[in-house]
């Protein structure tokens, strides 16, 4: 079973979904606004937003008869938490590479 962090990263692997996601930090937007900005149909944006919502990357806020979408910090935290598990080994490998380079030049 995929963790929420993996779901978030998987959802962002699609270039259209990533473009929709990247359009949201500035302000909450409607499906029509996102469709115009990303250059796909409103129906396609709605389908991509459903995947992003399931991954907890976006949330919907009703405003009158419109639905506005914005970033959901929970999904961003999930992705960050997932990636954080790899930092200790990445830093250790970097440190080892620095030591090797320093020894080679000494």
UniProtKB/TrEMBL annotation:
What Gene3D superfamilies does the record tag this protein with?
Winged helix-like DNA-binding domain superfamily/Winged helix DNA-binding domain
Q: Where is the HTH arsR-type domain?
A: 1-98
* Domain of life of the organism encoding this protein: Bacteria
The family database entries (InterPro entries) matched by this protein are listed as: ArsR-like_HTH, HTH_ArsR_DNA-bd_dom, HTH_MetalResp_TranReg, WH-like_DNA-bd_sf, WH_DNA-bd_sf
Query: Is Transcription a UniProt keyword of this protein?
Result: yes
Give a yes or no for keyword Ribosomal protein in this entry: no
What UniProt keywords apply to this chain's record, in alphabetical order? DNA-binding, Transcription, Transcription regulation
Q: What NCBIfam families would the database entry show?
A: HTH_metalloreg
By what name is this protein known?
A: Winged helix-turn-helix transcriptional regulator
- Recorded source organism is Nocardia abscessus
């Amino acid at each position: 079973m995929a963790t929420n962090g993996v779901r978030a990263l998987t959802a962002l692997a699609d270039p259209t979904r990533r473009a929709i996601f990247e359009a949201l930090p500035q302000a909450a937007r409607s499906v029509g606004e996102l469709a115009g900005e990303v250059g796909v149909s409103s129906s396609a944006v709605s389908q991509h937003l459903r995947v992003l919502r399931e991954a907890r990357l976006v949330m919907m806020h009703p405003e009158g008869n419109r639905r506005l979408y914005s970033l959901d910090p929970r999904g961003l935290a999930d992705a960050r938490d997932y990636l954080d598990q790899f930092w200790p080994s990445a830093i250790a490998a970097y440190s080892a590479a620095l030591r090797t380079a320093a020894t080679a030049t000494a």
